[in-house]
Every structure is written in structure tokens, then in C-alpha cells.
Amino acid sequence: MVVWERAILAIVFQKSSPVAAKLGAGKVAKSAKLVIGSLEAYSGKSAVIVGLAHLLGKQGLDLVYSKPVSGGLDSDDETDEDVPFLAETLGLKADRILPPILMLDSTAAQKRLTQVDQQNYGDRLQQQLSDQAGDLILLEGAGSLEEGCLFDLSLVQMAEVVDASVLLVTCFRSMEMLDGLLVAKQQLGDRLLGVVINDVSSEKLNTVHEQICPFLEQQNIPVFGVLPSSTLLRSVTVAELVHQLKAEVLCRGDRLDLMVESLTIGAMNVNSALRYFRQGHNMAVVTGGDRTDLQWAAMETSTQCLILTGHIPPTKTVITRAEELEIPILSVDLDTLTTVEIIEHAFGHVRLHEPVKVQCVREMSAVHLHCDRLLAELGLTVGA
Fold it and tell me: pTM, whole model, 2 decimals?
């Protein structure tokens, strides 16, 4: 589910919209704006946008999408692929996609600090919205409460400049999440409409439903959904691992679309390794280029790719077997510890760019997102 990942969602209902028609003759739909943000990046905002937009879009709403703040100061990506991805995923036409008003990177920050850039981005955002008609205007923005503040486009500033309510998306890692949400409530005040709690492990679901949700409701922070953890949404493609590791592909470069859900290190004797490998599912196995025995053992289990360290090429028989089983073999110019750290970082910074993930998000959202309650809190009635 990404992620997920930075997002801002705004809903603007016009008198001539499908919503107005459903409200009945002579009734005017209330104009509403909703900003979706998070306490930290990769919390699943894109997943919530995809899921919520899918649910509301099924009700005939006219959708518009924009990402006012593109990129990020901590991003190493030269391009931001979220805009074209979400535009395509939401099925929007060209005239329903608004361009970013700021590319956030170190160069932009330097221009701001030296006053080369003195633009009023809040005014630009207001103008962008005022010139655009649509039932549902989706704006994807900064990844935390603070990001974009240098340009007057932090989450709080955006909500104020467009007079919007705010829906936060947060991952549940520990009870410290509550501190972040309470601080956000202090900063946002009545603008904080509520929260969606994402990526909740199965063993923590009862705690979240029975303790966390009631507590937040008591603090006037409604919970609009609890999304369970998904190994599929946390998975990465072999192609992404190739990119992150700067790896050389030794075989089956045509299967880099395979999804990797877990990481396993092959560094023990082959009998122990085989039992270990059999417990995994859709693995990336990291092992030495000289460990032919472990490479063979890994290929007989649920392995999506072999990642070899040590500058030692695999044997021809291993290559031949990998070709037959359609298992890519990657060679990295890194030690095992560094390789593992990079892969684990990739799992923690997953984007929602594969069709199978989009379908998963839509199905989860239909079950776990309280769309009707959200509309009611916004003062909107659809289908009345």
C-alpha cells in the first residue's frame, strides 16, 4: 500500500455536480475541502487516496488531482513518479491533472534561503483551486506536519490557506503514535477531522480496536479506518532492489517484475539453510558468490531472486538452473551487512506503483475505510 509515500486530499462540491443532483432540486451541496497528511513519510497516504477516491468515485464524483509539493528534501529520486501513477490509477483525463507548484529539493531550499525565490506559494495554491471546478480535488503534498514550511506549504499552512479540514494517516508501530497525534491535534485544532491508522499487525489489531480507537475518539479524534498490515503492500520488485543496490543482473533480466516480500540471509550449513528457506515466502536470498550449495538450496524454495556478494560469480550450472526456474541472480559490489541494510530500507520505503497493490488497496479500503462517516463529518450527503 506507496507507499504510501505524501498526500493532500481536497473535496470541492459545486452546485452543478452529480452530488448536487443527488441532493435534490433546489438544494446546494456544501463546499468541503479535506487535506490528507501524515506525521511522517511513507505512512500510507497514497494508499488512502487510492482507496478513498475509488470509493467516492463510484458515487459519480468528478475527480481532479494535483501534487502541489513534488519531491522532498530527503528524497534521492530525480523524478517524482507519484503524479503520473495516481493520475493513471484514478483514471483522470489530462484536464483533470493540475501541475505541481513547487519542486522541493536542496536547490529550491537554497533559493528560498537566499531570497532568490520570494514567491507566495499559499496564494498560488489558492489560485490553483479557485480556477478549478470539480467535485473532488485531490492534492498530494508534504510527508509530515513540518515539511514544506519553508515555502509556507506545511500541512497546517495548506489547511489554513484553503480553509480545509485534515485527515491524518499514521502507521501503528507503538504507543508513541498517540503522542504524535495529540501534538497534531494541538497544532491543527478543530481542523483535524480524524485519522486512519495504517499497517496494523495482526497481533496488535485487538489492542488498536479496543484501546487505541476508543481513546482517540474520547480526544475528539475520530478514527475513519484501521488498515491491517499486508505483506503484499510491503513488498518490492526485484527491479527496485536492482536500483537500490546498483546491482548487476546476471540472468533473467526479463523477470525483474517479481515481487519480493521477505529477506533471508544464507550463511549457515546447507541442511540448516534448507529448513530456514522453506519457512520463507517470495524471498530475496543474500549469500556469498562462493556458496553454491546455498544457492541451489534457495532455488528449490520460494525464492524470487538471489543476491550474491563477494565478487565471486556463480557457476554455470547455477546460472542454468536459475534460467530454468526464472529466478533473477543479482551481483552486488557490497558486503553482506550493507546489502541487508539497503534491502531493509527498501522494504520500509515502498511505493504503491504495481497494479496488484492497487487492487489490494481497493479491496482493503472497501472493508476497512468508513467512507460514509467521513462524508457525514464533512457535512456532505450523497444519494439523499
Answer: 0.82
Q: Are the C-beta atoms of 281 and 262 separated by less than 8 Å?
A: yes
23: confidence class by pLDDT, cuts 50, 70, 90: very low
DSSP character string of 92-116:
--GGGEEPPSEEESHHHHHHHHTTS
Total length of the chain: 384
Closest to 153 measured CA to CA, from 81, 222, 73:
73
Strands in the chain per DSSP E: 8-11, 34-38, 63-66, 69-71, 97-98, 102-104, 136-139, 165-171, 192-200, 223-228, 236-237, 248-251, 259-260, 262-266, 283-288, 303-309, 329-331
- Lowest-pLDDT range, 90-94, 152-156, 329-333? 90-94
Q: How far apart are CA 119 and CA 108, in angstroms?
A: 12
**Residue 158's closest CA among 193, 133, 115, 126?**
126
Task: Provide the β-strand partners of residue 262.
Answer: 283
Please give the C-alpha separations between residue 141 and each of 130, 256, 328, 358, 381, in angstroms, as whole numbers: 18, 30, 36, 20, 27
Burial class (CB in 10 A: 0-12, 13-18, 19+), 205: middle
Rounded to an integer, what distance in angstroms lies between the CA atom of residue 311 and that of residue 34? 52
> Tell me: the pLDDT tens digits for 153-200?
999 998 899 888 899 999 998 888 999 999 999 999 999 999 999 999
N- to C-terminal Cα distance for the chain? 32
CB 140 within 8 A of CB 86: yes
How far apart CA 326 and CA 100 sit, in angstroms, is 40
Q: Where are the alpha helices (DSSP H) in 14-105?
A: 18-23, 45-57, 82-89
Cα distance between residue 256 and residue 158, in whole Å: 39
Q: How confident is the model at residue 123 (pLDDT cuts 50, 70, 90)?
A: very high
Question: Could you tell me the strand order of the sheet in which 34-38 lies?
Answer: 34-38, 165-171, 192-200, 223-228
pLDDT tens-digit series, residues 204-235: 999 999 999 999 999 999 999 999 999 899 89
Strand partners, 9: 138
Instruction: Give 66's strand partners.
Output: 98, 139
